Amino acid sequence: MWIYEKKLEYPVKIKRTNPKLAKIIIAQYGGPDGELGAALRYLSQRFTMVTPQAIATLNDIGTEELAHLEMIGTICHQLIDKATPEQMREAGMDAEYVNHGLGIHPSGAGGAPWTAAYIQSKGDPITDLYENLAAEQKARSTYEYLLDLIDDPDVADPIRFLREREVVHFQRFGESLNIVRDYLGSKRMFYGK
Amino acid sequence: MERDALLREITILDFMALDLHLFLNTNPDDCEALEMYNDCITRSCELRQKYEADYGPMTAFRSHGQPGWAWINEPWPWEEKFNFEISETL
User: Fold this and answer.
1) Which of B11, B19, B60 is closest, CB to CB, to A7?
2) Shortest CA distance to A26 belongs to which of A99, A131, A117, A134?
3) Which of A13, B8, B58, B88 has the fewest C-beta atoms lying within 10 Å of its C-beta?
4) What is the pLDDT of residues A87-99, one digit of tens each?
5) 8 Å CB contact between A87 and A10
6) ipTM of the prediction
7) What pLDDT, in 10s, does the model give residues A99-128?
8) Of A11, A12, A172, the CB nearest to B25
9) What is the dihedral of CA A41, A47, A52, A54, to 10 degrees?
10) What average pLDDT does this structure show over B68-89?
11) Closest-CA residue in chain B for A180?
12) Are residues A22 and A82 in contact, defined by beta-carbon separation less than 8 angstroms?
């Protein structure tokens, strides 16, 4: 089970309305390499993971991803909270406005709704950990592309924090992969005798 | 301590604790990391008690409530006014 804590992992305090930025940052809410997919990927994979270290890593990084989902939702919310319909139209968010008003919906930068097809849970500890190493790098790249386009320091600051977390998670998954590989290597033979 | 300064300190300590927690998952025998982790937890708990006494509950789970149930009245973390200004406090 989970317990909600009434604070963000890292503060988000955006003063300027800017629907254009929300339109691209939503990629990390419900896009292919976003935080919703990350949380569900790790929290689903943990059921068949092996070794205490790797199981805990999936459980706890999956939990941290939920805090990141909250940060991204917060960024998008603060960027459009006070937007007028006219500002939404000027930012090219008229379609989003018609479908969701000023609500936050898990979809990608192109408007495609989140789908479980973005994630994998293969039931094979090695396969899943490789999936996660790639996923963390894809998320890091996405944050870097976003930083290329973000011109408001209030927005760039929490995005930089989230980018750094992808690097740390990659490190922890790499350590988990080594531990799992040693464990399976001592237990199982894949070919020959 | 003012609310924003208190929340800032708790956020810093909790982040350090979380990062050390993930590190300890894959490095469970690292005594130095464990010592740092425990230090963060001790300091964060003290500050959390002060924060909750003055500014309402940080979690409504497994904690006593007060008349009026402040949980629903205090600002939520996604509101701009909830958060502290990072550039002014750092």
Assistant:
1) B11
2) A99
3) B88
4) 999 999 999 999 9
5) no
6) 0.94
7) 999 999 999 999 999 999 999 999 999 999
8) A172
9) -20
10) 88
11) B26
12) no
